[in-house]
Amino acid sequence: MDTKEHIMQVSMLLFSEKGFETTTMRDIASKADVNLALINYHFGSKEGLLKNIFQQRALNIQFHIWEIANNKSIDELEKIHQIIEHYVAKMFTNQEFHKVMLRELFSSEREEVHADTIAIFSENANIIIEIIKQGIKKKIFNKVDPELCFATIIGTIHHLMLSKLLRENIYGGKEKKDPILDPSFQKRVTNHIKQIIENHLIPPLKIKSI
Amino acid sequence: MDTKEHIMQVSMLLFSEKGFETTTMRDIASKADVNLALINYHFGSKEGLLKNIFQQRALNIQFHIWEIANNKSIDELEKIHQIIEHYVAKMFTNQEFHKVMLRELFSSEREEVHADTIAIFSENANIIIEIIKQGIKKKIFNKVDPELCFATIIGTIHHLMLSKLLRENIYGGKEKKDPILDPSFQKRVTNHIKQIIENHLIPPLKIKSI
Amino acid sequence: MDTKEHIMQVSMLLFSEKGFETTTMRDIASKADVNLALINYHFGSKEGLLKNIFQQRALNIQFHIWEIANNKSIDELEKIHQIIEHYVAKMFTNQEFHKVMLRELFSSEREEVHADTIAIFSENANIIIEIIKQGIKKKIFNKVDPELCFATIIGTIHHLMLSKLLRENIYGGKEKKDPILDPSFQKRVTNHIKQIIENHLIPPLKIKSI
Amino acid sequence: MDTKEHIMQVSMLLFSEKGFETTTMRDIASKADVNLALINYHFGSKEGLLKNIFQQRALNIQFHIWEIANNKSIDELEKIHQIIEHYVAKMFTNQEFHKVMLRELFSSEREEVHADTIAIFSENANIIIEIIKQGIKKKIFNKVDPELCFATIIGTIHHLMLSKLLRENIYGGKEKKDPILDPSFQKRVTNHIKQIIENHLIPPLKIKSI
DNA sequence: AATGAATGAGGATTCATTCAT
DNA sequence: TATGAATGAATCCTCATTCAT
User: At D23, is the secondary structure helix, strand, or coil?
Assistant: First the structure.
């Protein structure tokens, strides 16, 4: 269905901009230029629409993380690096969807969607946490706090998704321009996270002697 | 006015639990056990109520950060440490208010409130960023990315405020118990952020030679 | 058309269970397992479907009453008896249709259908009323109220069609079981109406002794 | 509340004319000349309005029947006569309410209301049935079918409530005028039911001999 | 300061129906 | 004959707000 996909695109945009409750069915219908009743025809309800959006997208995020984790030809540090790169890239290119997802992670209003989102999210978290634990076991990594390392990685990225105005003010430089679409900003963020995590994980130069 | 304060307390709780749009005036009136019309009488409107909550609370956060920044008897690293400690403590003890604030940081629906929140937030951000820049200038710190260091500090903390269910799943240990009220968790978080930031700011090779 | 007939059967069942307005086209389509648009294709509209159901069924009820009325080999009392028997039998075996009919008799919403139903019904009423008048004229019957005798006959039967729950409560005995499908209940009802009407129509003093 | 009572009056009229589902909240609001939202304010929902109407009225019907049943100074036949008189009078003067009630007796859509109505109705039925059983035991009455005697009494009355058009056609005489407001018709109905029931209950052959 | 009643705008959803194929 | 998509009108209800007291 072309129309169905179109409605999902439009509503994802609106949900990401205005939030779920603030976006009305009329908003969606008018922006997508379809009949109001058609949305209910295709998705059953407003919440059904949201669930549909999630089902379609949520899984493929998970898949790539899993692939990285199971790549036997790279070590734990490289895995973490690749995951960071992947996460940042996904968030920056799929902003709308990830804003919607972040909203549902935050808000527990739509219980079912909330629980589902948390479930997917937790699985990814555990993959990353396990990699770190493995690195510690192998003594490649310091004895860090694996869960909170995850919190730092994902928290840093999420923080940058919070608000356009915030990005303009803090990360937009002198011109206060939203850097989200600037590819060099994406690189800057990736590097920062990689380095701060590496500096924390890897023992800082133990045997520097003559 | 005792009643006024009572309404603000109750509504802050509700806003933090259910979000601003989902919380109705009737919810507030019934939970606060006051007449519906009285809320409008005191605060003018629902949004007026929100603004009132912010005005009352937002400033004193700012004040303490500013105080730390201007404490001439401590160096930049110590300033960063104290700020991290302060932030974590505030967030954990004032959960409700900070959830509401985080929501308004995220959502741009109520433009004025959003802008005000961002403004306050940005000021705090700049204070911290300036400290880091100062540290770099003094060559106490590495040449890190000051803005993104702030993103990491605040992002890590905010991530832990996102959702009770998330905390239970990822940070709740085997019993999956929300650790937010556990004082040792607060300590754990503080230490993690302090260390990860320190490892990143301070040149790894300090005295490691003969 | 097999499909057409099938749709009518299914919709009659639904109309009798839930009423006309409460039954939706979707209900019918899904229960009959046909496409929604097909119903409109065949019957023009929801009301068209109802009319079709009536046209198909209503006439043959009338016919039999008329036949009994014109049977010259039986007297008026016997005619009344046969009509009672016929009515009760029809109502009990064709419950669904008669519930729909009773509904339309009661509700004047769909004016045309209501008027048609009343028209058919009134004709039958008049046939019965005429028989009673004839009996009075012939002095076989007492000087009763012919119209209200009809009201009693038909009212008693209709009362038993009102509600399953009512039948269970009042006529279901100790086990509160709906007696409508029990053939002995049908006999009991027939006998009761026959007797009460006979006791009223026929002069009580039959065996004048010395 | 005067307004509340007014809304109930108006909606009872509309429900009796058009039925519950066909009557819209807008119909009620406009006919009662009140704001649409006010109805929900007072009654919570459309069904709440219906329930309110029932609660207010249903009980006092029951009370009078019970009083008659427990009057020790009159015999069973007199009790039946008084009940018939009472029922007919109530139905004719409170047409609207009784039409609404009859509708809910018939329709099982609003389950709770249906069950409540049946419950009240069944209680009244049992009072009457018990009187008849008592009469049979005392050998004042014939061995009739007590439940179906009740069906006849109430069925005859209900039949006359079914439809204005029906009354005009069958009971309206030559001018086809709805006799419901004609007091002589009420008397005629009362007498008919009294007689037909008496003829059935009381042994026909009393002392008719020399 | 406080209240119960009332309001108007707007919410999601459901409905019978129609269209294009 | 049959269908999936689409439509417009109408449904009940909820909301923040205001009014009179």
Answer: coil
Over 60: is that where the pLDDT of B176 sits? yes
In this structure, what token pair is assigned to residue C23? Answer: 């039954």
Q: Name the residue closest to E15, CA to C1'.
A: C24
Name chain C contacts of D162, Cβ cutoff 8 Å.
105-106, 158
Average pLDDT of chain D to the nearest whole number:
92
Q: What is the mean pLDDT of residues B145-162?
A: 97
Average model confidence (pLDDT) for chain B? 92
Residue D196 contacts residue C193 (beta carbons within 8 Å): no
- Cβ of A171 within 8 Å of Cβ of B147? The answer is yes
Strand, coil or helix: C115: helix
Structural domains of chain D, count: 2
Residue-wise DSSP of D50-86: HHHHHHHHHHHHHHHHHHHHT-TTS-HHHHHHHHHHH
Distance (Å) from the alpha carbon of B201 to chain A's nearest alpha carbon: 9
Distance from CA of C65 to the nearest CA of D (A): 17
In this structure, the answer to whether residues C170 and C68 fall within a common structural domain is: yes
Same domain, C167 and C79: yes
CA dihedral over C114, C120, C124, C130, signed as positive or negative: positive
Q: Write the CA distances from C85 to A19, C89, C99, C162, integer angstroms.
A: 68, 6, 18, 19
Mean predicted confidence (pLDDT) in C28-34: 96
* Mean pLDDT score of chain C: 92
Cβ B33 to strand E below 7 Å: no
Chain F bases having any atom below 7 Å from a protein CB: 1-20
List CB contacts (< 8 A) between C144 and chain D.
192, 195-196
Q: Which residue is nearest to nucleotide E18 (CA to C1')?
A: C37
pLDDT at residue C148 in the model: 98
DSSP string, A161-182: HS-HHHIIIIISTTTT--GGG-
| Cβ-based contacts of C125 with chain D (< 8 Å) | 169-170
SS3 category, D172: coil
Q: What's the rounded mean pLDDT across residues C123-146?
A: 95
**Which three-class secondary structure string do you get for B24-85?**
CHHHHHHHHCCCHHHHHHHHCCHHHHHHHHHHHHHHHHHHHHHHHHCCCCCCHHHHHHHHHH
Name the residue facing A169 among B106, B122, B204 (closest C-beta): B122
- How confident is the model over C144-168, as a mean pLDDT? 97
pLDDT of C206 above 50: no
- Record the pTM: 0.90
Q: Which of D196, D198, D210 to mutate to test the interface with C (most CBs of C within 10 A)?
A: D196
- Does residue C210 approach strand F to less than 7 Å at its CB? no
Chain C residues touching residue D150 (CB < 8 angstroms): 170
- Chain A, chain B: beta-carbon pairs less than 8 Å apart: 173
Give yes or no for residue C209 having a pLDDT over 60: no
Q: Is residue C93 located within the same domain as residue C36?
A: no
Q: Are residues B74 and B3 in the same domain?
A: no
Q: Are residues A8 and A71 in the same domain?
A: no
Q: Mind listing the pLDDT tens digit for each residue in C102-132?
A: 999 999 889 999 999 999 999 999 999 999 9
Based on the domain organization, do D78 and D164 belong to the same domain?
yes
pLDDT tens sequence across C43-60 = 999 999 999 999 888 777
Integer Cα distance of B86 and B68 in angstroms: 10
**D101 and D3, same domain (yes or no):** no
Nucleic strand E within 7 A of Cβ A52? no
* Cβ contact D121–C195 (<8 Å): no
Tell me what the mean pLDDT of segment C155-169 comes to. 96
Q: With beta carbons less than 8 A apart as the criterion, state whether C142 and C203 touch.
A: yes
pLDDT at A206: 46
Range of the domain at A29: 1-44
In chain D, which residues have pLDDT < 70? 1, 204-210
Q: Where residue A204 falls among pLDDT bands split at 50, 70, 90?
A: low
